[in-house]
Amino acid sequence: MSTDHARKARMIRATILMLGYAADDVERGRWSDAEIRKLGDQLATVAAALRGEGAAQKPLVIDLSEAKR
After folding, report:
1. How far apart are CA 59 and CA 22, in angstroms?
2. In terms of C-beta distances under 8 Å and separation of at least 24 residues, what long-range contacts does 28-33 make, across chains too?
3. What is the pTM assigned to this prediction?
4. Which of 3, 20, 2, 9 is nearest to 46 (CA)?
5. How many C-alpha atoms does 21 have within 13 Å on its Cβ side?
């Protein structure tokens, strides 16, 4: 496996984990529309990296701190 494939695999795993948490929080009304749009922007960056249209500039990070709850 190439280094690039390993990086993309880690990105996919992180995205799956974060989307699971985000889905629960969005369903419970804990995210604002602006936060949901920001998630969409981050997912577009990941999708572009997977399509080979450039690398994600920074890892996908979603704040799951207690302050949001």
Report:
1. 16
2. 30/68, 30/69, 31/68
3. 0.67
4. 9
5. 14
